[in-house]
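Saturday, quiet lab. Running sequence design on the structure tokens for the scaffold JK sent over.
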């Protein structure tokens, strides 16, 4: 064939053909190499069989502790469990034999890795025609759930299919009991497990009949049952520290640039505050809601990792506490904004805000900083019997608050609402501070110029 082509094709076409043949041969060579590397050696198979045998023995022992008994020889059961991990056809035949020999009425299967499953497959697996099933497909190469049952013994009323569980609601005919049967395959990630547990908890609350759950929960009852794995809480704690270090290095780099180019000398307190603030924002952007305890972040970040926080926490302060609400405004040619924070005597930050403003002007920004700050403190339910000192570097605005006759008429509504807060909450005073002592609030105010929406947070 090649000789015929050589006589017909010109030199350019022959070179093009030869290049295509070389590419094909190269792909075939790489494919054969990948197949050769993917094959398991005899030693790998032995190691895999040893691991499966050990896990099968532990599974059987745990089953006996919780009340399950294996009929026949225990070692035969262990060998069957080992064979389940060695090949798809072997799995099907072993599962079918176990279901028939033990006269199973309902079976929960997890980690099927199947993207399709029909009635023919169900009958093949069950070994009889009197079978019904509900199937949840796998995602990629993991997951997949199948619930099978004898339709003469269990009558299905309704069902729900989720990625991590299958819910069956029906009636057991032999004992005349309605029940909800849950087939679960829990994820390894703790954050995803929290979502699954909350979802199942809601189903349990809404369920009126009996509730039976089974499957693979990917967790243990006691810590000493873990073997060869890392505590996921430690993994999240490690991530927190990595993010914190990155945020600290970022702030050091910015402080270094300001020192070199703007001749601004950084203060240690400012660096610590900005590093904690930036790290907190980064962590909350990457972690699941409820995983981080904001209230302990400022005092001890190592205590911040939490998975069972209440929805809202109201601060109850003692009478001898005095908090500082430090605020500032910022305005440029086309933008304006304000920012600030509430700090306890102990140094813990309780509230933070950074809000862009529609109206322009530095005096308006300074006034709104005080108004938004006190409004946020009210929303956070932080007021108690303690006093709050509002600190600002705007002498003119502080003079307007103390002397009503000097107030601009165009902002009378803001002053009216501000007077209502001061009258209602009591124990609010105002104090002037220098611009050098107001760097943290100044940072939040200038940051608001780059925002499209207001940012408010409290804990």
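Result came back. Writing it out in full:
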């Amino acid at each position: 064939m090649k000789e015929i082509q050589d006589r017909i094709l010109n030199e350019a076409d022959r070179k093009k053909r030869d290049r295509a043949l070389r590419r094909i041969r190269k792909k075939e060579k790489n494919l054969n190499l990948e197949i050769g590397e993917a094959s398991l050696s005899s030693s790998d198979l032995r190691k895999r069989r040893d691991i499966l045998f050990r896990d099968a023995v532990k599974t059987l022992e745990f089953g006996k502790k919780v009340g399950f008994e294996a009929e026949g020889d225990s070692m035969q059961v262990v060998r069957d469990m080992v064979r389940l991990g060695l090949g798809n056809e072997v799995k099907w035949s072993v599962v079918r034999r176990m279901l028939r020999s033990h006269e199973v009425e309902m079976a929960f299967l997890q980690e099927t890795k199947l993207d399709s499953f029909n009635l023919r497959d169900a009958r093949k697996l069950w070994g009889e025609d009197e079978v019904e099933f509900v199937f949840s497909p796998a995602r990629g190469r993991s997951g997949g759930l199948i619930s099978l049952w004898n339709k003469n013994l269990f009558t299905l009323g309704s069902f729900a299919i989720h990625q991590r569980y299958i819910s069956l609601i029906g009636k057991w005919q032999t004992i005349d009991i309605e029940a909800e049967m849950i087939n679960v395959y829990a994820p390894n990630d703790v954050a995803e497990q929290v979502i699954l547990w909350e979802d199942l908890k809601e189903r349990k609350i809404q369920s009126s009949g009996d509730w039976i759950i089974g499957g693979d929960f990917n967790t243990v009852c006691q810590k000493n049952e873990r073997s060869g794995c890392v505590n996921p809480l430690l993994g999240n704690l490690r991530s927190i520290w990595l993010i914190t270090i990155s945020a600290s290095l970022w702030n050091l780099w910015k402080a270094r640039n300001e020192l070199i180019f703007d001749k601004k000398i950084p203060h240690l307190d400012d660096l610590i505050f900005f590093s904690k603030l930036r790290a907190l924002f980064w962590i909350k952007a990457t972690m699941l809601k409820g995983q981080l305890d904001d209230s302990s972040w400022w005092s001890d970040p190592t205590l911040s990792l939490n998975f069972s926080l209440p929805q809202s926490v109201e601060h109850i302060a003692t009478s001898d506490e005095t908090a500082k609400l430090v605020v500032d405004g910022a305005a440029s040619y086309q933008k304006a904004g304000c920012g600030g924070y509430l700090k306890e005597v102990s140094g813990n930050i309780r509230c933070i805000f950074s809000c862009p403003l529609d109206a322009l002007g530095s005096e308006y920004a300074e006034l709104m900083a005080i108004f938004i700050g006190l409004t946020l403190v009210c929303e956070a339910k932080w007021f108690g019997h303690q006093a709050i000192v509002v600190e600002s570097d705007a002498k003119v605005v502080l003079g307007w608050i103390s002397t009503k006759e000097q107030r601009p008429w165009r902002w009378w509504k803001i002053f009216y609402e501000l007077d209502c807060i001061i009258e209602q909450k009591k124990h609010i005073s105002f104090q002037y501070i220098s611009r050098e002592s107001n760097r943290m609030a100044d940072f939040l105010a200038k940051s608001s110029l780059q925002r499209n929406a207001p940012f408010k947070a409290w804990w």
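Notes for JK: The chain has four domains: 2-38, 87-219, 232-303, 322-458. The mean pLDDT is 75. Ask whether to fix the surface positions before the next round.
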